[in-house]
Amino acid sequence: MQERETALECIGARKAFYVRKETAPKTAKTRPSSTCQAEAQPTPATERHTGGEAVVQPNVARKGPGIRAGEAGTGEVCGTGQPAGVNGRERPRLAVQRAVAALFPRSVRVEAVSGVTFSVKRGEIFGILGPNGSGKSTLIRLISTLLLPDEGEIRVFGHDVVKERFAVRRLINRVSVEAAFFKKLSAMENLSYAARLYDVDIRWARRKAIDILTRLGFSESKAYEPLEDLSRGMQQKVAVARALLTSPVLLLLDEPTTGLDPVSKREVQDYVLEVRDSHDTTVILTTHDMQEADRLCDRVAIIDQGRFVALDTPGHLKESLATNGETVTLEDVFFALTGKALKESHPEEAD
Q1: pLDDT score recorded for residue 111
Q2: Which three-class secondary structure state does DSSP give residue 244?
Q3: What is the residue extent of each domain of the chain?
Q4: Which of 3, 88, 157, 160 has a Cα-to-Cα distance from 211 of 20 to 30 A?
């Protein structure tokens, strides 16, 4: 039997953020150095991201102590006269790290993804399970090129997510728990807009959109109502339809059924299986629903504090914990390996 093509390969991927300690003051005041005078109101070196943590934005040069302002990503490291990122001397990220250390001495570096290595074959549904803040969504963002890894390599059908990110984006689509829309527009208008972005024939896209929405239990009459008038569950179905509309070869589902009722969850799950079987689509799924993972996934990885603590088929993971013929669920395995309770994410809590 011929070995299936590798769809996704992740080797030693790492991604870190700077977060403030709980004991740190709300505002950090620093004295401008003699060599690098700060503005009267220096721009903070950290911003909020969707997980609620303070994180470094490495590709934007900021004015303030420790780094001179300039074009994006080309500031000078204070006191050295060396431009960051010029002629390979120093990456802008490293310059920003030094600036953050000077500005916020009480901040700490936290690895959201820490040396993760795995591969996924074409047509496989691969699940990633973990408690909130474990690194699931960060890993999905790395694969989708929304974030760049600090170390390691990630390849999608042979394309490097850093060097060939535009090629990667043509192969993937993503559904997230915090999906963004034009809320004043209808579901059909949002889907038509997505089709244009991917250069999909608009007449074909409209027919396909109605077909997908119908399969997901979305009535055609609702498809022409403004999204702001629809429930969150209905909006999530539109997010799933938008991702499937472009027939991606790699589908990234970041908690796709969060907020859906049991019937709607089953409709989405059935359609994901149908798309995989009919189009040989590869699926990466993060979820807090252990039954969903057990039903859909060929293999699952359990991630905790940025590291994989287990990777196997759902059946083998359950067998590894079973003793004396007792029935073990995937949830039992999760508790045993992480010691943490499950909690469904909300958009503002996504890790």
Answers
A1: 84
A2: helix
A3: 7-18+108-338
A4: 157
Joined together, the tokens standing for residue 166 give 């535009």
Q: Which residue has the tokens 């059946």?
A: 315
Lookup: tokens for 149: 């890894």
Cα gap 294→345, rounded to integer Å = 19
Predicted pLDDT of residue 103: 63
Report the alpha-carbon angle 148-74-10, nearest 5.
15
pLDDT given for residue 91 in this prediction:
52
pLDDT of residue 2: 62
CA 59 to chain centre: 19
Helix axes 330-338, 314-321, angle to 10 degrees: 70
Q: What is the pLDDT of residue 68?
A: 36
Distance CA 53, CA 45 (A): 13
Category of 320 on φ-ψ map: left (φ > 0), alpha (ψ -120 to 50) or beta:
alpha
Question: Distance (Å, rounded) from C-alpha 333 to C-alpha 331?
Answer: 5
pLDDT at 100: 57
H, E, C per residue of 122-144: CCCEEEEECCCCCCHHHHHHHHC
User: What is the pTM (predicted TM-score) of this model?
Assistant: 0.71
Instruction: Report CA torsion sign: 232, 235, 236, 237.
Output: positive
DSSP states of 160-212 as a string? ETTTTHHHHHHHEEEE-TT----TTSBHHHHHHHHHHHTT--HHHHHHHHHHH
Instruction: Supply the pLDDT for residue 199.
Output: 86
Residues in the chain: 351
Residues in the chain with pLDDT values less than 50: 23-25, 27-90, 345-350
CATH of 7-18+108-338, one of 3.40.50.300, 3.40.140.10, 1.20.210.10, 3.90.1150.10: 3.40.50.300
Tell me the C-alpha distance between 41 and 101, whole Å. Answer: 19
* DSSP 3-state of 37: coil
